[in-house]
């Protein structure tokens, strides 16, 4: 039986999780788990926390406990499918996702299905499902956009353009859908042609703050080695959407590519503190630190060691950084 004191502490643990105070939340959940509560809500939230902290085996165990209590919960089954996917149990994940979609269509599940299909190499086998769903959910702009991206992935760009065009013309599009339509329509064009077309579109009042189009333009500037234009465009994006971690990472990669190592390190440090498992950010950041050290551009080695210590304070479970620290010490 769940007491009022237990419920109060559980509410606090869930709130800490929502506030991304994961370590304190974990301590409180762990203490509450000692009473082995018969509560699907408790175990599913503990499983979700473990998943967020990349403690996947714990997440799997806790979610299985939750499922034993509430086997038909959509939230728990969806979470379990994500855990299975992350632990390379893709076939089992696919089975759960298909079952959930048949019960109720939801976009996150559809995106997960595509990811699983890619992992298993059976993406084209899903086409009959998408052909059927397009008929059933043709008025759902978000679904049609997701389906368009699926068709593009399997090489049917013509179908993808048709679907994105439908969404845009019916006024059901997001900024992302419009960006994808333009990106697909300009495939095969030269860099200068793409840049010219994007610059013209972004002059339209309705599109001037479309961060997806701006991101596409910034990438084209980068491909053409128009570094200043790329930097200015990324700055504009982050002024519009300062919490856009993806675009911030791209700006860090830009600085690294053009050799602005101190600027790259400053941005990529912030990105890695927010997403410590991003291999590309980590590789670029420590490459910048090492080059700074080799070229005596500031104390790159000391900066790297201090950053690792800072990251480990925030994420003590990321023990792989201890190995990285040992490697840095040998520079």
Describe this structure in words.
The chain is built from 19 helices and no strands. It starts with a helix and ends with a helix. The longest helix is centred in the C-terminal third of the chain and has 16 residues. α3 runs antiparallel to α4, α12 runs antiparallel to α13 and α14 runs antiparallel to α15. It is an all-alpha fold and 331 residues long. The protein has 3 domains: 104 residues, Serine Threonine Protein Phosphatase 5, Tetratricopeptide repeat; 64 residues, no CATH class; 65 residues, no CATH class.
Give structural attributes.
single chain, 331 residues, mainly alpha, Serine Threonine Protein Phosphatase 5, Tetratricopeptide repeat
Kindly summarize this structure in a few lines:
With 331 residues, the protein is mainly α. Helices cover 75% and strands 0% of the residues. The longest helix is centred in the C-terminal third of the chain and has 16 residues, at 279-294.
């Amino acid at each position: 039986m769940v007491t009022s004191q237990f419920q109060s502490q559980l509410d606090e643990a869930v709130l800490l999780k929502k506030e991304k105070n994961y370590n304190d939340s974990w301590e409180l959940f762990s203490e509450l788990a000692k009473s082995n509560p018969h509560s699907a809500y408790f175990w599913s939230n503990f499983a979700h926390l473990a998943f967020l902290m990349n403690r996947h085996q714990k997440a799997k165990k806790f979610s299985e406990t939750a499922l034993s209590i509430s086997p038909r919960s959509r939230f728990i089954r969806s979470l379990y499918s994500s855990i299975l996917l992350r632990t390379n149990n893709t076939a089992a994940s696919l089975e759960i996702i298909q079952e959930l979609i048949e019960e109720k269509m939801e976009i996150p599940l559809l995106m997960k299905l595509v990811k699983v299909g890619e992992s298993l190499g059976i993406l084209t086998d899903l086409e009959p499902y998408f052909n059927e769903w397009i008929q059933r959910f043709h008025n759902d702009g978000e679904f049609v956009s997701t389906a368009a991206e699926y068709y593009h992935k399997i090489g049917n760009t013509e179908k993808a353009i048709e679907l994105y065009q439908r969404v845009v013309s019916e006024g059901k599009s997001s900024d992302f859908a419009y960006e994808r339509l333009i990106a697909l329509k300009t495939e095969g064009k030269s860099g200068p042609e793409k840049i010219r077309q994007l610059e013209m579109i972004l002059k339209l009042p309705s599109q001037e703050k479309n961060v997806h189009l701006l991101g596409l333009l910034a990438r084209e500037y980068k491909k053409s080695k128009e570094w200043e234009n790329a930097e200015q465009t990324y700055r504009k994006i982050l002024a519009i959407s300062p919490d856009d971690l993806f675009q911030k990472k791209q700006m860090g990669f830009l600085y690294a590519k053009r050799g602005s190592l101190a600027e790259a390190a400053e941005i990529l440090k912030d990105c890695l503190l927010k997403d410590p498992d991003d291999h590309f950010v980590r590789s670029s950041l420590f490459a910048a630190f090492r080059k700074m050290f080799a070229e005596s551009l500031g104390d790159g080695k000391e900066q790297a060691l201090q950053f690792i210590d800072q990251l480990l304070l925030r994420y003590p479970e990321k023990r792989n950084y201890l190995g990285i620290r040992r490697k840095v010490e040998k520079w």
